[in-house]
Amino acid sequence: MTEQQYQAYELIFFSLAFAIVVFFHFYFRVEDWDWLLLSGILTALLGLWLVKFIPRKINHTLTRLFNRKVISLDSAQEDHLRKELKERAAIWATASGGLVGSAVLISFIIKNGLPYPAAQIPLTLFEAIGGYIVGRHLGIMASYGRLGHWLKRQGIRIQIKPGYPDGAVGLKPVGDFYFFQAMLLALPVLYLFLWWLMMPLWPRYEAWRNIYLGLLPVAITFEVIAFLVPVWFFHREMQKQKMQLLREADVLGQEINDVETTLIESQDPAQRELLKDRLSFMTKRYGEIEHMPTWPVNAKTWRYFFINNLTLILLPLLSEFIKMLVNPLIKIMNKLL
């Protein structure tokens, strides 16, 4: 079975599950629908649809790195690298899927005990299969998250490009890929946050509000880790290569100083023009090295990532803080009135 066929079966599985749940809900009034469950399944379906783009995106990322000569390989080596990366991801997917699916199954058995209630078997199987599917994709994401370490073990050098116009010395495709993976894990964060905001409108879900508030920082932590841990390898590699390039910058700095002195003393117009051109080139190169970033992420992505996550963290905290201040005042006013 190919990966595309497997993903199609996954979508069919969750779509049927959603259709069954919706059909079941139609037996009740709209007011009695479990919107928490329905929106959760829809979020899972959205995530399942988006994860199918991950293999395509990692291939696109590698293509851009090859085109930029950040990774220099011939065509045969490029094809071999892609093949090995895909095979490695498949191994991680199977192992992670089995682990998560088994964990879900065991947790249900522990909860319901033995002999196992027959009425619980359909739900248990559904949850276990769902756990296997989710686990597979987590395994694939984790495998691609180790890309930098895997390239190093293969002896493949990453060559940074100071002054490259992407603002990340040629490695922006790497940052963009891991940002996309992190945004997939942001779906549960958004789900928890939106429901935390809306739960006061549904008294039946009020008991879940504090639970969702507790789950929110956990989900955000996983999202942040999914972004920062994979790019950390490239950050260290960029730091290492920058330290080596700073030696070149130090030499350039002295040469720039010498050329400026010669330019001041020179009376020959032709020589002065040559010195100016040389000075311009060396100054540009010096600045590119001196101000070279050490993360494969440009400033715009950093702002988006941190502002969004800080907002999701601070708004609930601010809300709870205001509630702590206002509630005692309301009680005092009620007593006075």
UniProtKB/TrEMBL annotation:
Transmembrane helix as UniProt keyword: yes
Domain of life: Bacteria
Membrane-spanning parts: 12-29, 35-54, 89-110, 178-199, 211-233, 302-326
Key words of the record: Membrane, Transmembrane, Transmembrane helix
Stated name of the protein: Uncharacterized protein
Source organism (scientific name): Nitrosococcus wardiae
Lineage of the species this protein comes from: Bacteria, Pseudomonadati, Pseudomonadota, Gammaproteobacteria, Chromatiales
